[in-house]
Amino acid sequence: MAKKIIVLIFILFFIIGCDENNKEQITINQGKYSLISLDSNEITFDKKTNLLSQNHNKPYLLVFLSTWCDYCLGQAQHIANIQEEFGDKINIYGVFLDKDEKEEDLKKFVKQSNTTFKWFYKGDIANLIDTYNIKTLPFILFFDKNGNLVMSYNGITPEEMITFDIKKML
Questions:
Q1: Under a CB-based contact definition with an 8 Å cutoff, are residues 93 and 43 in contact?
Q2: Could you give the maximum distance between any two Cα atoms of the chain, in Å?
Q3: Strands 118-123 and 91-96, bridge-based pairing
Q4: Of 86, 83, 94, 84, whose CA–CA distance to 139 is shortest?
Q5: Residue 129: CB partners within 8 Å, gap ≥ 6?
Q6: Looking at residue 23, what is its pLDDT?
Q7: Rounded to whole angstroms, how far apart are CA atoms 132 and 80?
Q8: Nearest CA to 119 among 144, 151, 83?
């Protein structure tokens, strides 16, 4: 009986990650977002061209998480594996959604998740939430090297699914 429950839970998480709505294109207005990282560097997200400055013409993931979300820590650890597998072929940017979290808690989360990519916690995050209609955590956006949205992943998404999509893009 316990095995059946575990299998059903896994299937449920897989279905959530495979939601057909992931393929819808998101319309972006003109303007720019500015995000500030944990190391106080700023990066600009240009809504018109849908590109991050300093992206160096590579596909990229925007990973939206929060430290209070237990599933987010697990997802971040899987994203760290993806980063290790693809190295410098893609860029990954983490965005903490909760503006009230303490910087020390954010740094603790980054250490626990074993991620080395750039994490953002200040700036125009509320506008990103509205633009991409983020309602679930974790939430991941995958863009090609030209800044076109390829896929969005709502909720826990298997590492293999994201890896498969990245390999198709490279």
A1: yes
A2: 54
A3: parallel
A4: 94
A5: 64, 97
A6: 32
A7: 23
A8: 83
Strands 139-143, 149-154: pairing is antiparallel
Length reported for the chain: 170
pTM of the model: 0.77
Block mean pLDDT (10 aa), the chain, length 170: 49 42 36 77 65 76 94 96 95 90 92 92 86 92 88 95 95
For 109, phi then psi, to 5°, come to -60, -45
Contact 83, 114 (CB under 8 A): no
DSSP collapsed to 3 states, the chain: CHHHHHHHHHHHHHHHHCCHHHHCCCCCCCCEEEEEECCCCEEEEECCCCEECCCCCCCEEEEEECCCCHHHHHHHHHHHHHHHHHHHHCEEEEEECCCCCCHHHHHHHHHHHCCCCEEEEEECHHHHHHHCCCCCCCEEEEECCCCCEEEEEECCCCHHHHHHHHHHHC
The two structure tokens encoding residue 7 = 């299998």
Displacement of CA 79 from its chain's centroid (Å): 8
